[in-house]
From TrEMBL:
GO molecular function: ATP binding; D-xylulokinase activity
Described function: Catalyzes the phosphorylation of D-xylulose to D-xylulose 5-phosphate.
Enzyme class, first EC level, given as a word: transferase
Species, as recorded: uncultured Microbacterium sp
Protein name: Xylulose kinase
Amino acid sequence: MALVMGVDSSTQSCKVVITDADTGAVVRSGRASHPEGTEVDPAAWWTALQTAIAEAGGIDDVAAWSIAGQQHGMVVLDADGDVIRPALLWNDTRSAGAARDLIAEIGAEEYARRTGVVPVASFTATKLRWLRDHEPAAAARVAAVALPHDWLTWRLRGFGPDDPRLDELVTDRSDASGTAYWGPGGYDRDLLITALGHDAVLPRVLGSGESVADGAGRAVAPGAGDNAGAALGVGAGVGDVVVSIGTSGTVFAVSAEPTVDPTGTVAGFASADGHFLPLVATLNAARVLDVTARLLGVDHGELSRLALKAEPGAGGLRLVPYFEGERTPNLPDATASLDGMTLASTTRENLARAAVEGMLSGLAAGLDAVRGLGVPIRRALLIGGGAQSEAVRQIAPLVLGVPVEVPEPAEYVALGAARQAAALVGTEPNG
C-alpha cells in the first residue's frame, strides 16, 4: 500500500492527511493551529506544518506529497532566502487603495483580459504595491515573491535560508492565477513590475501532472490554492458549483472555458487540473453565524433550530452581514446592518433566520454572477464548517435556486492535495 500526504495550510490551521494512494482512505492525520490576524510571520506556518506532520506520524513512509494553501498571501524573500516581513494575508484589506491605483494605471478591462481578474485588496499584486508605497526599503530588498503554499513546499523540500535557491520555488496555475500578474499565457512581468517596482523571481508554474523532488527523493506535486484543492477533493466536475462556507465564503464553478469579467465580481481563476475556476469570494461567511449565536446566547445547534422556526423572509428582517467589510461586492470599509425591524419582526427566531439568509444571499449573488458569464451550473456542492448547520442545509436550496448536495464532512482541501500526490505514484484514489 503506497501512502501519500496532502496538506491544507489554511488561514486558521494546518491540516495533514496521510492517505492510501489506491483508495483515498485516510490512514492517519494531524493538525496544528495558526496565529490569528491578517499579518502573519510565515515561520508560524512552518512550525505548524512540522507539528501537524509529527502528529500524523511523520512522512518517512510516504511516497509523494502535496501542499494546498490559502491563496493570495504575500511572502517576500530577499536574496538570502530570508522572509523580509510578515506575510499579508488574503483578508488584509489595507491594500484597497493600492488596488484602486493599479486599476487606474492599467484599466479594469485590461487587467481582466491579461489575467482573468481585476485587482482587489485580496490579491498579491495589490499587497506588493502597498509594500512599495508604504515600506519602500523592504520592497527594494525583494528578490522573490511566493504564496503561502509555494513557500511551504520550498521549505519542506529542504530549501530556505540555509539553502536559498530561489529558482527552486514552484507553484501551480490555480494559486498563480490569484496574484493578478499571471494569466493563461503565464506570468505578466510588466504587471509585476507595475506593482512592486522591479522584477523578481517568481515560482515556476508546474503543470497538473508535473512534479519535483524533495531531499529524500519523494515526488512532490505542484500543490494548489485552497479552493482548487477543495474542488479536487470533493470531485467537482464541469457543471458543478462549490459553495464553501468557512472563514470566508466562496462560490466557484468548474468551467471548461476561461471567463473574463471586467467588473471584477467574478475572478477568472484556473483550476488545478487544467480547467478553470471562476470564483466569487465573500469575507463574511460562517462568522456571521458565530456572531449571531453569541448575540442570542445560544450554541449553533440552537441557532439552527431558531432559524427553522421562522418563516422564509424572517418576517421582513434583513441582515446585511458586512461585519468585516466585504470583498464581493468590493466594499472593504463597509459595516453590517439590520433592516426591517418592527415590534412583530424583531424576534429571536427571525434574527437567527435573517443571519442564515443574509449569509446565503451573498453567496447566491455570487452564483448568479458566475452563471451570468455563461458558465453552466447543474448543482451546488455545499462544504465547509457552515454547511454542518441544519438550517443552512434546508435554507440553501431556497436561496441559491439550484439543487444542493452536502457531501460528508471532510478535509477536502487536504484530500485534494492527496489526490494530486497519488497521481504521481501511478494511481489516483477512488472517491
